[in-house]
């Protein structure tokens, strides 16, 4: 099939002419992506819960393994996060060949990143021992990582193909695949962790096998969908996949590396908050964990909106439509803010019922932990607002291939403003966990304000002109 023979392949998508139509276009992408993000949390939660059934020692080892592999996964996701913008821009220009180029090279980047990452994770036990972790927990975590590490290329491959589906407004299928993945992962865990259904009892190793198997099946199903669906197969994503396109691969790395560093800076900020709160004692840490988990679940929705904003701004940029760029960006920001206002309202109105879901009423410490969690959820309402604004702000800037300056914003906001202020308020002024949270709110607020200011001044800063000059 030639490109000329298939009109869908060379036609740029129509531009929404009103704010209402832009909301509809954005939500058709954002909702499936948000549900997929929530589904991924459900898969991770299933792993934690089922490994926890083996006992405290296995749970501790599992958390060490999950944490280590997540850091590498976060870097890989950040690296390939430039693929949605590049794909959307190509789609906006109506160039089918340009659409498949970032997808192909995104798959290359996934493999090239995963190979050394897997090699490092194979030495997970040694790494954890060097970090001063318990020898038994380190050994068990190493056994888990020896199998779970192989999931990296499949997970990253799914993220790359998801960019194509989101760009072509076919992201809904990912929701069904992710939902099936939750069930499959739980079933394999149940069989291999505990030796059910005639399968060997592998305990924590079984969780690692389940992670890789579920990821491989998910990637395979999405790949089959891409090569068989009438609206997608004409892009020939996998044709001559073995041929490197170093120009496009270089663009993915150049734009993706700052995104990866931004993600690692943010994850480091949350890790620092947990360490600081941990100095205040186990009960305070437990309350902090409840509040942080609530915000993490709610965050998946603005994250999906941010990812949709990247695509919508990218499509408009590909058409060289400055008005559509602004409409797409501000629509994403409005949607993100609306969702976060609902979450904030829940933290203010029903904090106690939310926190109780994480506690055993028979635990003698439950009352103290509940009081701490409720107080932190009141602060978390502001945290959620600024976190949602900053993630959407960073996402819409990525649609214009603007990733280096936002990295500087993140470094400044998270680590120059947020972390030091959290320490000062929490320990110097004695505000404890609430002070730590306020410090991080200021950091997130700084990133949010800077990102919004940069997008607002995109014409004055020449962001659109630079994009056009590079892609002329």
Automatic annotation (TrEMBL):
- Mitochondrion as a keyword of this entry, yes or no, is no
Q: What are the UniProt keywords, alphabetically?
A: Antiport, Cell membrane, Ion transport, Membrane, Transmembrane, Transmembrane helix, Transport
Give the signal sequence positions.
none
The answer to whether keyword Kinase applies is no
Mind listing the GO molecular function terms for this protein? antiporter activity; xenobiotic transmembrane transporter activity
GO CC, alphabetical: plasma membrane
CDD domains the UniProt entry points to:
MATE_NorM_like
Q: List the Pfam families hit by this protein, alphabetically.
A: MatE
The name on file for this protein is Multidrug-efflux transporter
**Organism encoding this protein:** Microbaculum marinisediminis
């Amino acid at each position: 099939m030639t490109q000329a023979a298939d009109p869908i392949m060379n036609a740029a998508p129509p531009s929404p002419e009103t704010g209402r139509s832009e909301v509809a276009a954005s939500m058709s992408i954002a909702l499936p992506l948000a549900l997929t993000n929530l589904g991924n949390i459900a898969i991770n939660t299933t792993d934690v819960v089922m490994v926890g059934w083996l006992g405290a020692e296995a749970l501790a080892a599992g958390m060490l393994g999950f944490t280590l592999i997540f850091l590498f996964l976060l870097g890989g996701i950040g690296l390939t996060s430039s693929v949605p913008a590049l794909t959307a821009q190509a789609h906006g220009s109506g160039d089918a060949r340009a659409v498949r180029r970032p997808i192909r090279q995104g798959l290359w980047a996934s493999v090239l990143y995963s190979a050394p990452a897997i090699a490092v994770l194979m030495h997970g036990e040694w790494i954890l021992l060097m970090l001063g972790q318990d020898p038994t927990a380190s050994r068990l975590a190493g056994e888990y990582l020896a199998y779970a590490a192989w999931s990296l290329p499949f997970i990253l491959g799914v993220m790359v193909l998801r960019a194509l589906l989101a760009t072509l407004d076919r992201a809904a299928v990912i929701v069904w695949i992710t939902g099936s993945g939750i069930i499959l992962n739980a079933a394999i865990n149940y069989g291999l962790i505990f030796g059910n259904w005639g399968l060997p009892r592998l305990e924590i190793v079984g969780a690692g096998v389940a992670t890789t198997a579920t990821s491989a099946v998910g990637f395979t199903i999405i790949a089959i969908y891409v090569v068989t669906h009438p609206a997608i197969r004409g892009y020939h994503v996998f044709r001559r996949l073995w041929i490197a396109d170093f120009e496009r691969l270089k663009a993915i790395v150049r734009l993706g590396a700052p995104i990866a560093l931004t993600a690692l800076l943010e994850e480091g900020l949350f890790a620092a908050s947990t360490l600081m709160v941990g100095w205040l004692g186990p009960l305070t840490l437990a309350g902090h964990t409840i509040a942080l988990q609530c915000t993490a679940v709610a965050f998946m929705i603005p994250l999906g909106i941010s990812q949709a904003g990247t695509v919508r701004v990218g499509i408009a940029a590909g058409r060289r439509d400055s008005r559509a760029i602004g409409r797409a960006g501000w629509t994403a920001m409005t949607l993100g803010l609306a969702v976060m206002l609902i979450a904030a309202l829940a933290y203010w109105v029903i904090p106690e019922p939310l926190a109780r879901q994480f506690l055993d009423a028979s635990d003698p410490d439950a009352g103290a932990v509940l009081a701490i969690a409720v107080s932190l959820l009141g602060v978390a309402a502001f945290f959620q607002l600024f976190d949602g604004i900053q993630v959407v702000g960073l996402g819409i800037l990525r649609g214009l291939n603007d990733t280096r300056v936002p990295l500087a914003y993140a470094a400044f906001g998270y680590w120059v403003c947020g972390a030091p202020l959290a320490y000062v308020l929490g320990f110097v002024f004695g505000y404890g966990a609430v002070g730590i949270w306020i410090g991080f709110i200021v950091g997130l607020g700084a990133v949010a304000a800077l990102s919004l200011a940069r997008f607002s001044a995109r014409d004055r800063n020449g962001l659109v002109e630079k994009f056009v000059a590079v892609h002329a």
